[in-house]
Amino acid sequence: MADYEVSDAEIIQIANSFLLASPPGEFMEVVTDVRGLLPDDSLINDSAPATFREWNTDQMLQVKSPKGNHEVLISKYGEVNNAEYLDPRGNCVIQYDHIRQEVVGSRAIEGELDRSVEDYRSAFDKAADAYLQEHYINGGCTVYGGKQGGNTNITVCISSSKFNPNNFWNGRWRSVWQCTFSGSGKVTLKGNIKLQVHYYEDGNVQLNSNTDKTGSANGGDPTTAATNAIKQIKRIEAEFQAALDHSYNIMGDTTFKALRRTLPITKKKMDWDMRRIKALRLGSQVAR
């Protein structure tokens, strides 16, 4: 069989797939490793800006707002262009460098914010921030608003990360909730929850969960609608986390047990008493 020659385009595609699969908190390390594997590390230079942007926005990275003491998410939902992102609470547009992963400036909002729904967006933002402070102490949230088909649509984005490289694990929670309603009518909730954890001490284990959820809440004035909607989001996310905990609590008796033999081939449990093991080893040597 003739050797298959991998084209530069295929190498770039493979390299980018590795980059986009990077666990939270480890993106730059993966970039360094991928460059080291390439025959020419300049191959990914042209595609790097788009790949970095896709990973950063998908992970909803948290940054400090230049216009307030709060966190802002770099997300697709607030993207003005490839390098600018809405900060509705700070009433500004953040300029972000995807390669360096840092804020490089800001400017005043120039029509990017839908003022017709600002009362509702602001109320949802306040309720979501209170929920965040209670349950996601390492997190950030950004709330966007707009009109969609005559309805009001409020998008609540939550991202919370915890990195512990000294103990070989990192993780990130992301949830996005589309809250749609007309006037003071019932609020329809459509959410997506993503949870990614990487544990890499003496191995390489990842948890990747991607779950869609739905719900509803009673509407009303901005404060009432926001309070009711966030209360339902809190309930749904708490149920999801409880179900996840239950799944892992029983996994040792189900999934993991199915992956290994219950007893050795001898059908007897191994006696791990080191004195007995040394005695057996000595006995086998004497027998020789």
TrEMBL record:
Classification via InterPro entries: CapZ_alpha, CapZ_alpha/beta, CapZ_alpha/beta_2, CapZ_alpha_1, F-actin_cap_asu_CS
Protein name stated in the entry: F-actin-capping protein subunit alpha
Family membership noted in the UniProt record: Belongs to the F-actin-capping protein alpha subunit family.
Gene Ontology biological process terms, A to Z: actin cytoskeleton organization; barbed-end actin filament capping
Record's keyword annotation contains DNA-binding: no
A Pfam family the protein falls into: F-actin_cap_A
A GO CC annotation given for this chain: F-actin capping protein complex
Keyword check for Transcription: no
Gene Ontology molecular function terms on file: actin filament binding
Its job: F-actin-capping proteins bind in a Ca(2+)-independent manner to the fast growing ends of actin filaments (barbed end) thereby blocking the exchange of subunits at these ends. Unlike other capping proteins (such as gelsolin and severin), these proteins do not sever actin filaments.
Organism field: Vannella robusta
Keyword tags: Actin capping, Actin-binding
Subunit structure: Heterodimer of an alpha and a beta subunit.
